[in-house]
Design a protein that fits this description.
The chain is α+β, with helices and mostly antiparallel strands. The protein has two domains: 231 residues, 2-Layer Sandwich (Antithrombin, Chain I, domain 2), CATH 3.30.497; 127 residues, Alpha-1-antitrypsin, domain 1 (Roll), CATH 2.30.39. It is 32% helix and 34% strand. It has eleven helices and 15 strands. Strands 1, 5, 6, 7, 8, 9, 13, 14 and 15 form a nine-stranded mixed beta sheet that branches. A hairpin with a 5-residue loop joins strand 5 and strand 6. The longest helix is centred in the first third of the chain and has 20 residues. The N and C termini lie far apart (72 Å).
Length: 403
C-alpha cells in the first residue's frame, strides 16, 4: 500500500510540473556563432544599401538572405571568380569551410527566437535535368545550408511554377513568384534563400491612438498616413544628425531599429555614413529613455536586380563569360545569369511581417535620466530588423514613401 501511495504521489507531482510548464517555449539556443560571419552579413548589407540607396523610392533588402544565397554559390566558384566573390563578400580572411560553418551556426541559433516571433530561413537548389553537379559541391551546400538539390526539366513551364511554389510556401505567400520560364531557358542551377519574419511588438500600439497625420516625401510634398502613437520607456539615442529608437518584439531578442534624420539633414548623408564601424558604435549608444514614438502604419514591396550593385562591389567576373564555376558543374562553362532579390514589409499596431527571397541563377555562360522625447517619423527614415543575441541584420531599408 505504501508503495502504491508513493507511486501515486510521483504521478501527481509529474502532472503538476507538466501543467506549470505547458505552453512555455523552449529556450533559444545560446548564441555561439562566428562573429566574423555576422560582420560579413551586416557589412554586405550596408555596402549594398549604399549602392542601391540613391533612389527616390523605397529600398528594403535582406542582407542575411543575400549573403546566404551568395555563400552557397561561392562554394562552386573557382579561380579568379572565387577571388572576385570573396572581394564582394569581404571574406578573403575566411576559408570556405569557415564561411559554411559560420552560416550553419547562424541557421541553428536563429530558429524560434521567441514565442511571439516567427523567423523561418530556408535554402534550396534547383538543378537542370541531365546536368551533372559535383558531389562535393552538393554535399557541402546540403550539409551547411540544409539545401536539398531537386532536378527539374527547365524546358517545361511547370519548372518555374514548382520553384515559385517553394518560394511562396517559404515566405507564407508574401512573395508568390521569383522566376519565370525565360529565366530558366539557359539555366543550369537556381540557388534560393527565403526568409520569413513575423513579430509581435513587446508592447503593441493602441489602435485608438492611431490618427491620420502628414508624412513629407523626399520632394517636399506631403501625404496623409495613419500614424501610430505610443508613450513608454524605449532604447533611444539622439545626436546632431538623427534620432534613433529600438522597438522590441516579444521578449526582445529581435528588435526594429529606426533612424530618423533630423529636419534639414539628408537621408543620402545618413546612407553614406552607414558603415559597420558606425553601426557598431550606434548600437552601444542606445539608452533607456521615456518618450513618445509616432510611426506610420505602412506596407512596402521592393524588388531589385543584384547584378549592378554586386558588380560595383567587385563581383563582375562572376557575371561574365570568363566566370569559373568549375567547382559546381561537371564539364560545363557557366556564369551567373541573374541575381534577383524581392522583399515585403508590413508594419502595424500589432507588429511586423517581413519576407525576403534571393535567387542566384547560374547558367550558360545606470545612466542619467534624459528628459522625455518625442520622435515623429513623418519624413523619410531608415529601419533595420536585427537579431539581438547574434547582432545579425535580417532586413534593412530606406522608407521614402510608406504606403
Amino acid at each position: 500500500m505504501r508503495v502504491l501511495i508513493f507511486v501515486v504521489c510521483l504521478l501527481l507531482l509529474a502532472l503538476i510540473f507538466a501543467a506549470d510548464t505547458r505552453g512555455t517555449a523552449a529556450p533559444r539556443p545560446k548564441a555561439q556563432v562566428d562573429p566574423r560571419v555576422v560582420t560579413v552579413i551586416n557589412d554586405l548589407g550596408f555596402r549594398l544599401f549604399t549602392e542601391l540607396g540613391d533612389n527616390p523610392e523605397n529600398v528594403f533588402i535582406s542582407p542575411a538572405s543575400i549573403e546566404l544565397a551568395l555563400a552557397m554559390t561561392y562554394n562552386g566558384a573557382g579561380g579568379a571568380t572565387q577571388a572576385a566573390m570573396a572581394k564582394a563578400l569581404d571574406v578573403s580572411e575566411l576559408t570556405v569551410d569557415d564561411l559554411n560553418k559560420g552560416n550553419n551556426g547562424l541557421l541553428g541559433v536563429m530558429k524560434n527566437p521567441d514565442p511571439k516571433v516567427e523567423l523561418a530561413i530556408a535554402n534550396s537548389l534547383w538543378g537542370r535535368k541531365g546536368i551533372t553537379f559535383k558531389p562535393d559541391f552538393s554535399q557541402r551546400v546540403g550539409t551547411s545550408y540544409q539545401a536539398k538539390l531537386t532536378t527539374l526539366d527547365f524546358t517545361r513551364p511547370q519548372a518555374a511554377d514548382t520553384i515559385n511554389g517553394w518560394v511562396s510556401d517559404n515566405t507564407r505567400k508574401k512573395i508568390p513568384t521569383l522566376v519565370s520560364p525565360p529565366m530558366l531557358r539557359d539555366a543550369y542551377l537556381v540557388l534560393i534563400n527565403a526568409i520569413y519574419f513575423k513579430g509581435a511588438w513587446a508592447t503593441p500600439f493602441d489602435k485608438a491612438q492611431t490618427q491620420d497625420g502628414p508624412f513629407t516625401l523626399p520632394d517636399g510634398t506631403k501625404k496623409t498616413l495613419p500614424m501610430m502613437r505610443q508613450r513608454d520607456h524605449f532604447a533611444y539615442q539622439e545626436n546632431d544628425s538623427f534620432q534613433a529608437i529600438s522597438l522590441p518584439y516579444g521578449s526582445g531578442d529581435v528588435v526594429m531599429d529606426i533612424f530618423l534624420p533630423k529636419a534639414g539633414a539628408k537621408m543620402d548623408d545618413f546612407r553614406k555614413s552607414l558603415t559597420t564601424a558606425n553601426w557598431t558604435a550606434w548600437q552601444r549608444q542606445f539608452r533607456q529613455s521615456e518618450g513618445t514614438i509616432v510611426l506610420p502604419r505602412f506596407k512596402v514591396k521592393y524588388e531589385t536586380a543584384l547584378k549592378p550593385p554586386l558588380t560595383a562591389l567587385g563581383m563582375g567576373q562572376a557575371f561574365s563569360d570568363q566566370a569559373d564555376f568549375s567547382g559546381m558543374l561537371e564539364g560545363k562553362d557557366a556564369r551567373i545569369t541573374d541575381a534577383i532579390h524581392k522583399t515585403v514589409l508590413e508594419v502595424n499596431e500589432e507588429g511586423t511581417v517581413a519576407a525576403g527571397v534571393t535567387g542566384i541563377i547560374v547558367g550558360v555562360t545606470a545612466m542619467p535620466v534624459d528628459p522625455p522625447f518625442e520622435m515623429v517619423v513623418d519624413h523619410p527614415f531608415f529601419l533595420a530588423i536585427r537579431d539581438v543575441p547574434t547582432g545579425t541584420v535580417l532586413f534593412l531599408g530606406m522608407i521614402n514613401n510608406p504606403e
